[in-house]
Amino acid sequence: MSTDSTRSFRKALFSAPGLLWIGLFLVLPTLLFLPIAFASANPYGLPALPITLDTFKEVVGFMFFGWTPANIMIVIRSILQGLITTIASLIVAFPVAYFISQSRSYLKPLLLVLIIIPSWTNQVVRAYAWMELLGPNTMLSQLAAAIGWIRPDMSLYPSGVAVLIGLVYSYLPYMVIPIYAAMEGMEWSLCEAAQDLYASPIAVFSRVILPQTMGGIIVGTILVLVPSFSNYIIPELMGGNKSLMLGNLIANQFSSTPDWPYGAALSVVLIGISFILLLILKLLTRLTGSQEGAML
């Protein structure tokens, strides 16, 4: 067997578990949803004949004309919540990744483990922990009331702020690790050279550090934006009725207000939007010429 064939076989072998996982838990459910999305809904909300495009027309709404104002607000809220979560995660993750990259070698594995450990706990358990921390008469709610953020008779939970905190806490490791990996491959001597040439700290950051870490930033953005945009658990538990997101709207079509074809069509559209976001971010990563972009 030639060297190229051996390499191809090894790549296929190592890729097989990931491809199997994607096939079983993404491709197969999507294929099962597709027939339901084209079905009609019977009086009980279950799929029935005849096959129709009315559900997709309602979802797409021909420039939103077919959507109710409440559903439009849910879509807008989901997009904004995903973007704000991504930006907030980046603001927190960048200095954390920098601190880890500048730490002593024997401390780096420990710090990375501390970042990753919360992800080992079920997201529902973490959401309930934050519900206790943000509830009435807690220190965080009292602090928010003291600075005038909320009224004294209110609490941070349930609210959109609680959802944001829960999402940032859940997805922060996925922003920290790619940025840290990018910083580990940086040429720090360029920063020293820029300082020797009397470059300001802002210039060093914007012209030396940021370009070299852009690949990690975009990879982290992919890993945070897509799941936070479609998250279901955290808005359901921490947001209340006024903080519903697209994932909650889809879940409601299979539970409280059953309309399976509508829910299936929403799911297909959500997956399509997620893939579009991935393609855009992948293109941006490739344009930066980063090694991370080549791996996507």
From TrEMBL:
Please provide, in alphabetical order, the Gene Ontology terms of the cellular component aspect for this entry: plasma membrane
Just give the chief location class. membrane
Is Acetylation there in the keyword field?
no
| BP GO terms, sorted | transmembrane transport
Q: Which one Pfam family would you cite for this protein?
A: BPD_transp_1
Keyword rRNA-binding on entry: no
Which residue numbers delimit the ABC transmembrane type-1 domain? Answer: 75-281
Localisation per UniProt entry: Cell membrane
Q: How does it sit in the membrane?
A: Multi-pass membrane protein
Q: Which residue windows are transmembrane per the record?
A: 12-39, 83-100, 156-177, 214-234, 262-281
Q: Which UniProt keywords apply?
A: Cell membrane, Membrane, Transmembrane, Transmembrane helix, Transport
Q: Which family does it belong to?
A: Belongs to the binding-protein-dependent transport system permease family. CysTW subfamily.
Q: Which PANTHER family match?
A: INNER MEMBRANE ABC TRANSPORTER PERMEASE PROTEIN YDCU-RELATED, INNER MEMBRANE ABC TRANSPORTER PERMEASE PROTEIN YDCU-RELATED-RELATED
What name goes with this protein? Answer: ABC transporter permease subunit
